[in-house]
Structures are given as structure tokens and as C-alpha cells.
Amino acid sequence: GTGLDALIKGKGKKYVGFCADSGLLSNAQNAAILQAESGQLTPENSMKWQSIEPSQNSFSYGGADTLVNWAVSNNKIIRGHTFVWHSQLPSWVSNINNKATLTTVIQNHINAVAGRYKGKIYAWDVANEVFNDDGTRRSSVFSNVFGDWTFLDVAFRAARAADPAAKLCLNDYNLDYSGAKLTNFVQLVKDLIARGVPIDCVGTQSHLVVGNGAIPSFKTTLDSLASTGLEVQITELDIRTNSSPSSAQISQQVRDYTSVVSACMKTAACSGITVWGVSDKDSWVPQTFSGQGYALLWDNNYQKKQAYNGFVTGINS
Ligand code: G3I
């Protein structure tokens, strides 16, 4: 093939992937692009706690099954996303105030979901976004009830037990800048390893902004993450700008995609890159950042943008 996934595999990396879910898989234009360009899928929403266990012990697997079945039958590997996350969490979980109960609830949830997809998941985001931007531990039902980081021990051990073949990742955003968040993230991973918690990979979401000064030195971020000794994955890449960008912003976005992809290519530990969507039309960005968008590689009409060529340049760098 000639798509991004084939290109990056030809250069020794494992995958280029995209997020999707049932709606985007039944969209013919989107599905055709995934067929041609992708070697990996991440469920954008269907495996989140709110989606998959909305009330206790009542599992709703329809959306996740659709994604997994499509990926398996089309030879795409899967990143499972995500178990322990403060967001998209049903209130029956966030209202728990007892450590023993919460421990059992985490174990039961992970045992069920990781068990259902056992053998089909390349990597799981076992925990997501556990840091604040200043590098402190984020407040959540998990951190508040445990009072320390050991909710991670519970979650990673449960995931390893349920699907021993899956790589287990800690995932976060805004690790793209040198500072307390990146430093403390790396230290936490080293601490987890030191106390024998089963962790195999680190995920850096990489929701970036066109022209940000950290992008040209993105390799320093990846090198810091690689200092853990673990596999590094770029898990949710997009590079947003004005929804109606200037020609200068469009050109800068091309260079920025090249910089990020090139940094992965030059970092041995960086195994693959997931882009957080196909078409700008379906991106999360405009709903979250008013007036911003244009973050992905295909435009509102599923036509390749110049950013796609920037991605290719990065692979070939
Ligand atoms: O499906 C319902 C629909 O029935 C309802 O009518 C509509 C009204 O609000 O909401 C729909 O659900 C939305 C869902 O996406 C599916 O489209 C939620 O409101 C919306 O909040 C949700 O947004 C997702 C967001 O995570 C939730 O936190 C985005 O699609 C998804 O791209 C985004 O992904 C996250 C990663 O999981 C973690 N890292 C950051 C990244 C971007 O925020």
C-alpha cells in the first residue's frame, strides 16, 4: 500500500492510526480512508466508562464491539481507551467514597472489559490524564479516595491479569512542553516500574496548536518519555489553528506535522502515531475551542490537506 500506515511500516515503525467509532465506520468516505491509510484504531468514545458500564454491572458493549469487529476483520490493531479517567465517568462511580468498594469496582470493570477483548488489544490506556497542568496529582474520585497514586497499581494489575498480552499504558496531554507536568509524569512512571507495577508504555496525546514554540523540539519530549525505558506512543495527535486559517497558518501546520512525525521517526522508542480523527468535519476541536479547528489531515470534504504531505515528509525524514 501507499497510505501513511504502509509508509511508516516501511520505515520500521508499527503503525499510523486514527480514532473512530461506529458512526465514522459506517461513513463510506471515512471508512475508505481508514482502509487505505490506517493500521490502528482507537475507539473515540465507546470504551469510556460512561459508555461501557453506565450503571453498575450493566455493560453496554455495542459500540465497542462494532469498533473491535471492524478493526479485527480489516487487520487493524487496536488501542483500548480508557479505564481510569476522571472524565466521562458515571456518577455511580464518582460517588463512591470507600477505598475497598472503589478497589473492587475498578477491578470488576477492568476484568470485564479487558477480558471481553482479551487478545485483540495492542495497548490499553489503563489510566488517562492523572496530572494537572502544573504537575500535581489531579483530583478525581480515584486519587481522592485512595489519597495517593496506588489506584494506578490496582488498575494496572487488574489489566495485566485480564489480558496479559496487551501493552499497558499511562496516557496524558500537555506533555509536549518541558516543565513540571512532563517531569512528574516521567517520575511517576519510574516509580511505578520501581515498585513492580506492570506498565509497558507511555502515551502522549499531543493535542497541539499550530505555531507553538515547543513543536520544533518535539523530540526532546519524546526523549524524556523514552527515558522511562518504555515504549512511547503518540496517541491523539492533532494540530489546531483558526477554523478559517490564513495561508501562513496552513504552511506552518505542514511544518508542524513534519516536526512531530519526524521526532517519532528519530526516536527508537516511539512505536506509532494515532491521529485524533480523519476529517476536520468530525474533529472534537471546534466543539471545545470556539473558532478553532482545521486540526487534521483531511478537510471537511474528506480531501487530503497539505498537512497530509507534511506528515509524509516527516515519515521520510
Ligand atoms: O453521543 C451523544 C449524543 O447522543 C448527544 O446528543 C450529544 C449531545 O451533547 O452528545 C453526544 O456525546 C458526545 C460524544 O463526544 C460523542 O459525540 C459528548 O457530548 C462529547 O462530550 C463527547 O466528546 C468526546 C470527548 O472526548 C469527551 O470527553 C470527543 O468526541 C472525543 O474526541 C474526546 O476525546 C478525548 C480523549 O478521550 C481523551 N483526550 C482528550 C480528547 C479530546 O477531548
UniProtKB/TrEMBL annotation:
Reactions catalysed: Endohydrolysis of (1->4)-beta-D-xylosidic linkages in xylans
EC number(s) given by UniProt: 3.2.1.8
Domain of life: Eukaryota
MF-aspect GO terms: cellulose binding; endo-1,4-beta-xylanase activity
List of catalytic residues: 236 (nucleophile)
KW Signal (keyword) present: yes
Name this polypeptide is given: Beta-xylanase
Shown part of the complete sequence: 105 to 421 of 421
